[in-house]
Amino acid sequence: xxxxxxxxxxxxxxxxxxxxxxxxxxxxxxxxxxxxxxxxxxxxxxxxxxxxxxxxxxxxxxxxxxxxxxxxxxxxxxxxxxxxxxxxxxxxxxxxxxxxxxxxxxxxxxxxxxxxxxxxxxxxxxxxxxxxxxxxxxxxxxxxxxxxxxxxxxxxxxxxxxxxxxxxxxxxxxxxxxxxxxxxxxxxxxxxxxxxxxxxx
Length: 201
Ligand code: MN
Hints:
It is a single chain. By secondary structure, this protein is mostly helical. It is built from eight helices and three strands. The protein has helices at about 20-45, 55-60, 65-85, 95-105, 110-120, 170, 175-185, 190-200, and strands at about 125-135, 135-145, 155-160. A three-stranded antiparallel beta sheet has the order 2-1-3. A hairpin with a 2-residue loop joins strand 1 (about 125-135) and strand 2. The site of manganese (II) ion has 7 residues, from helix 1. Manganese (II) ion binds near residues 27, 161, 163, 165 and 166.
């Protein structure tokens, strides 16, 4: 079925000065919108058309002939998840159950933070860095291009887009500075906490 682009959960200038309205205008308005249009064009009229985008992503991931459908579907989904992973009031150290789980699984927030920053900085080329729940354990993983933890049965809690289009207008080649700003100022721990609770139901 056609996938509709969700509204941005904040104004295009709400993440400034860390991510500019100019970046979000292109990223949400052009890049994400194009992935969705290509996904909808590719799925329309096929036997997968009655399934959710998550089901289509899993089915297409198994089939090399569906690479285009997978890439556009996964990029459509990953970006919707990324907008929710950011908040004008985000960043810094979380509180509550997820903070306790981070302490237990990473040995503290600082160790988690450096692992996430390192994954985001070292993903070679385009991709994503994620906080996931994997079989009951919090982990940091990175994925290349459109790849998503959904296909390996991991439950995503937060993501950082490290494709150049996510930061180049604001940071040029300084990907680590963009990642540090996202971690310190924008990560939406309310969203992560809700995902963490949902994953345990
Ligand atoms: Mn992107």
